[in-house]
Amino acid sequence: MKKHKTIPTLLFVLTMVLLFASLVQKQTHLWSFKPLNGVFEPSPEPELTFETYSTGQYQAQMEPFLKENFGFREPLIRFYNQFLYDFFRKSYNKDIVVGKDHWLYFIQHVNEYYGTELYRWYDSNEEAQATYDRQARLMWKLRAILKEYDVDLMVFMAPQKGFLYPEHLPYREKDTTTVNAREYYAEKFDEYGFPYIEMTKWFMDMKEADTLPFSLFPQTGAHWDFSAALATDSLMRFMGELKGIKLPQLHYGPLHASNDITLKDDHDIENLANLMRPIPHKDDRLFDAEVTFSTDSTTTQPSALFIGTSFLMRMYYFVPFSEIFPNSQYWYYNSTVYYGKDYKRMTHVADLDMLQRLLDSDYVVWFSEGDQIGKMSFGFAERALMTLCVSEDRVAEVRRHLIDSLSHDPATIERLKLDENDSLLSTKLGGMAYEILGKRPERYLPELAGDSIPTARNPRIPEALVIRDIKKDSAWMMNLQCQTVIHNTTLEQVLKMEAQNVLNDRPLMRDEQDVVSQKTYIESRVKAMIDEIRSKPEMMQQIEEKAKANGMTLEQQIEADARWIVNYQMNNHITD
Question: Exposure string (b/e) for 491-502, b if CB count within 10 Å is 16 or more?
């Protein structure tokens, strides 16, 4: 009997030791562990007051906080994840599906192959098909309008992992009653004569031929690997044929084994699984190579606007995109804007003049892959059509009517859980009106409705076209950049002023004699760039390391980097 009594005692003691160690680790972080991968929304630590305790608010908020902040959290979670993987071939992450032979897929890869992905976004196959029809029609309208201003809109469909490697998918019954978004859009675009590239079929042919020394997709990754560099060449050739111009030619260096940085992205699903040890990689042939480009007197380096998903990130990781397409931008999910050298600078689409950006581009490329294209343009087509066809005042007027209608709808007020006199009410109603108008602009703006190309145009277009022409004249741009010092304003405002001078046949600032010297202007921009560098700790750390490597003082390196950035921005007409 004594022997049996000692077991619970030992378990109790062991539990107390582990709890004590966990508390010590939580408070002191005595041991450091590899952080978990993924995006987490941390729960704030609640404040203990009589009111929060008596109402139960403190207890309710403390529970999720403790779940995220107990000692040894990282190794325990990895241990549990490894247990699920080893014994059940499952992942705790609901977005990850474990396939055969240690292959990993995101849930949308599997759903799209088996015909059920559309049910995550639509109530029925008919609703999805109606949405695809509408979106294809919007894109066709948008292309026709942009083409009037010599801007080519096209669609690029990246390949789908599930369709390329179905042999490793877990078995399910296929739903043969649903439409495949990728195939359906391809048929609609063919009907409209809309230019597009569909990469899945081409990649399936390459896989069947098995002539490439590298994999088309990593075994435990969601995105393509070095195969993205091959697709870039196809994209550039297609763009050149679309306008009848010659783009830079890509050159591929000798293949070499992928480095640790490349492999981290190649195994992005595996990283999110947060396991204790690496998954066996039997089928991966992961290589990399240096990609350069060449130009000659007949080459054109166009301005391009890319809108789309993370597949583009892998293309510009392997290929010098920002150098091939100077002054290009990448609108990630039509939300975050990446631009500048290697797309290292960031802003938001909402902060840009969309009309000017559209008309400044030689190409607009909507970029997606099969399981994402079902959601199509993430609002880009709708907002671009509004921008090109309707004045800002008209949009504001319709939005005010929507806000007024929503404010008199008891169901809306109740859903917002706000009192009629609440100061946040007008802000939330404004956001709802903006979202409603953005989703279905043709419902509230009759000039966009119907099956024909809209004839209405934004009255700002003539000004935007003059600004586009000014930007192509380097001497004129240099003069106006200097004018920003005289007028103490931004280049954007000076460009608008000069455009109005052109449109109204007034004297041009370009011809004024009293202009700040180019040297003065450059020095003002260098000073501003130095201040910007100093305000960014991450950038300062990189510059400190660079200064040591170059044998320079920190101040010398900051100024050298600032001058390089300003020179690059001016050569590529980047103004912010």
Answer: beebbbbbbebb
